[in-house]
Each structure stands twice: as C-alpha cells, then as structure tokens.
Amino acid sequence: MFFSLATTAPQAADLGYLLQKHPERVFRKSLSVGEATVFYPEATDDRCEVCLLLEPDSVKLARDAMKHGNGGGYADAKPYLAGSLLSVAIGRCFNSALGGRAKEKTERLTEDWPVTVSVPALPCRGGPDAVRAAFEPLGYSCDFAAPPLDPERPEWGDSAVHQVTLTGRQPIPAVLNHLAVLLPALEGDRHHFIGDAEVEQLVRRGGEWLAEHPLRDKLVAFSLKRKPSLIAEALERLDAAFADESTEEEPDASNEEGGEVAPAKQPRVRLPKLHTLRLDAIRDVLAEPARGISSVVDLGCGEGKLLRKLIAEPRFTRILGMDVSAPQLARTEERLKLDRSDRRERVTLIQGSLTLRDDRLSGFDAAALCEVIEHLDPHRLDLVAASVFGCAAPKVVVLTTPNREYNAVWEALPAGTFRHADHRFEWDRAEFAAWTDAVAARHRYAVERRPVGEEHPDHGPPSQMAIFTKTSTRAAETGEDG
Ligand code: SAH
C-alpha cells in the first residue's frame, strides 16, 4: 500500500517540517496493521516528494479479522490496495500534521501548496465517478489510469483497481485529512470494528470540509459501516459544527512523533455535540436568575453530563440525580467525584424509576429530563407525567427529546430507523406539542417549546425542548399537587 505526495511550492523541502519527518532520513514505524515506511525520493527547494509505504502484516490482519468474525484469509488482495489500512498508517505516521500541528514553519501549515498525490492502487467500488465525486468538491482534479488486468490477455479487461492522481492547491494538513477520511470511505468495506472512537476521529478529521461536502451523508455512512447510531452521532456533530465554538471535549493532543509541538496559527475547528447544545440549553434555562431555582433533580441522569454542568453553577445548592440503572449510577458517582467533601453534601444520586411515584423527588425547585422520555414505552408516559408533574411537582420542568422530522436531513440514516437502538419512539414537532400541551393542561403548568440545534427550513431543529412552569398557586406554595 502506497501513496506519494509531491509539491513544487517555494522552499518545497519545508514539507519535512510540516510532516515532522526529516527528508534525509528514512522513518520506519511498526503499526498494528504492518510496517510503515516514510521516505523522500526527492527533496529540493524546487520539488519535494514524500512517500508512505505500508507493508501489511497479513498474518496478523487475518487473525484480527477472524477475531471479529470476518473470516479473512492470507491470500487476500488487500495488501496491495490503498484504503482503510493506509488511512491507519497516515494517522499513525502523520498525527501532528493531521491535527494541524508542527514544531517549526507553523506559518506554512495553513498555506495552500500545489500538490500532486498519487495512489497507484485505489480500490473503489464506485469507480472513477465516485473518486471524482469525493475529491472534486474539495478542489482537486482527478486523473485515472486503469491498468489492464494482464497485459498479455487484453480480453480480461481492465483492473477494477485504479491508479489515481489528484492535483490541487491545498494546505498540507487538509490533504492528509482528505486522504485519511476518503480512502476508507471509497473502499466501502471496513474489516475492523467500528465504534465511538471512529466517530470521534471522523468528526475531527472531517470537520468543516466534510460538514459542507455534497456527499457528506454517504461518506459518513460508508465510513461508519452504516451503523445508524454511529452515523446519527457523527451527523449531529457535523451539523453542530458552526453552531458553537466552545466544547468541553479536548481534542486529542497525543503526538505520535513525540516531543513538544507548537500549535498551528489557525485554531482547530472544534465541534460541539448536539448533546452539548441540549445540556447547555437546559442549564441556561434553569440558571436564569428570575426563576430563582436553587435545587434541581435530574431524572434519568445517565452518565451525569447534565449533573456536571449543574455542579459548576454555585446557584444550585441541592442537586439530585436519579436513574433506573444501578451500574450506570456507580460509574457516574465515580466520574463526578462525589466523594469530594464539597460535593458530598450538595449532590446525591439515587436509583429509582420515573414510572413510580417517589417521595424522594419532592421539594425540588426544578426537574430536568434530558433525552429520557424516548427511552420509555409510550404507554408508560402517563405514569411518568403523574410522577413528575403530579407527585414531585417542581416549579419548573425542562425536557428534551429528538425531533423525528430532522432525521430526514440525515440521508444516511436508513428511513424509519431511530437515532439510537434503545429509543422506543421519536416524535415529530406536532406530536411533541400535543403531548406537552396535554400534560401541561392536566397538571396545571404553562408550557413553552423551543428548538435545540440549528433549524432546517422544512424539517425543523434536530432536538426539541419544552419548559413547563407551574401555574397553580396552591401547588406553588406547598410544593405538592395531585
Ligand atoms: N439524561 C442523560 C441520559 C439520557 S439516556 C443525558 O442526557 O446524558 C436515558 C437515561 O434514562 C438512561 O440513563 C436510562 O438508564 C434512563 N432511564 C430509562 N428508563 C428509566 C426509568 N424508567 N426511570 C429512570 N431512568 C430511566
């Protein structure tokens, strides 16, 4: 597996600084997938070319494939093809450059370099059209040669594997990110396990260019093996890309090459999750001074992401998290460091179910249900309403749930599937309005609905929020109702 990147930029050999690989040295690295070698056939001020060669460890790969139930065999054609393994090698050999970091010449990281990338054997299910559709919107022009399968036997036709040359003007980190994301997506079948880490990586490497790519949804779907929940997560995050600059997640700062690195001039794009937007929206409502809320119960608190945000607000002096899952609560307790003396008094976790009336939930100013109701069977929602609005009856209840209409925006999400395997339903805006109005009327609350996330002109926002405020004076005074 092989690709080369050549440039005729002024002081072309500066490429070595950006890649953190000295042009006069051969760099070798043992990877889980095989042996990688980086070398420069040419490095002058006029032209510089770097090559990455990966010699896959077929025995190890076959063993891994069998571990994951994918069969696999020693005599696989894969060793010759660029694709997901080459992407792994790019990630491991050029990690800093991928992240837009270098030790020296950092000012050249954002410069557009004239580049020619050649991939001598690119497996691509969709042929040249698919390669063009993937790379041309990013500003590359693509050339193809399909060598005959066997020069001696022209009747066998051309190989399905293409020799591809991409030319364009791009910043070096962008070229690497494009290759790292698109080579495996074009290959179309990934042998190794795909999980949250791959979503994280895809969003980090894809960032803005992938968010704006006309084939975004397809590329995301191919990259994530068409797993609906992972696709939804990735698309949510790419959608949120321009909604907010801040996020609590720190980008992966690991540096494969070792040593100190200087940050690139241009800040890295940081992508908040839609979930972060929801949590922030809930926190902001609860923290509005006029509401005078000092105690909050987080119902279905899960891993405690909202609790963490509430803890950070000194105005909340009493915080209760409830969830039905005991193992989850144990993890949350540890994660939130609730054994710290300043937290022990202020924050409590309890196991309980939303479908049962529970006196422990009484006496709080506010309750939050962040992405919880859709995890319950619809016929049990009346019980939830009776417990939350009737029995616990706080002044304010804030609740969020997905807007099903928005799923249509994510073409890659197979029609009719939910965003997460555990969802029992997902409502459109009208269904959400009907249910929240009915609950408000029944339990004497006023309700206001707000969008969460960027609204689509036809399909509305990705998530929807309702803010219930108690209107009954009797209940407001005594904190009890029903
Ligand atoms: N609010 C959290 C978690 C949402 S996931 C967040 O936004 O990050 C839904 C959570 O609801 C899970 O933690 C699940 O254990 C919990 N849950 C499901 N059914 C429940 C029930 N009947 N009572 C209480 N919690 C429940």
Task: Please characterize this protein's 3D structure.
This protein folds into two domains: 2-192, c-terminal autoproteolytic domain of nucleoporin nup98, CATH 3.30.1610.20; 274-470, Vaccinia Virus protein VP39 (Rossmann fold, 3-Layer(aba) Sandwich). The protein has 16 helices and 14 strands. The protein has helices at residues 15-19, 58-67, 84-93, 95-98, 127-135, 172-187, 196-211, 216-223, 228-239, 274-287, 305-311, 326-335, 341-344, 381-392, 429-443, 473-478, and strands spanning 2-7, 27-31, 34-43, 48-56, 113-123, 141-145, 161-170, 295-299, 318-323, 347-351, 366-370, 396-402, 445-452, 463-470. Strands 2-3-4-1-5-7-6 form a seven-stranded antiparallel beta sheet. It has a seven-stranded mixed beta sheet with strand order 10-9-8-11-12-14-13, sandwiched between helices. The longest helix is centred in the middle third of the chain and has 16 residues, at 172-187. It starts with a strand and ends with a helix. Residues 71-75, 242-271 and 475-482 have low confidence and may be disordered. S-adenosyl-L-homocysteine is lined by residues 300-302, 305-306, 323-325, 328, 353-355, 370-372, 375-376.
Quick synopsis:
Helix content is 33%, strand content 21%. It is of the alpha/beta class and 482 residues long.
Terminal CA distance: 69 Å
The main sheet orders its strands as 2-3-4-1-5-7-6
Identify the CATH homologous superfamily of the largest domain. Answer: Vaccinia Virus protein VP39
Order of helices and strands: EHEEEHHHEHEEHHHHHEHEHHEEHEHEEH
Catalytic activity: small RNA 3'-end nucleotide + S-adenosyl-L-methionine = small RNA 3'-end 2'-O-methylnucleotide + S-adenosyl-L-homocysteine + H(+)
Pfam family, one: Methyltransf_12
Biased composition (Acidic residues): 245-259
Family: Belongs to the methyltransferase superfamily. HEN1 family.
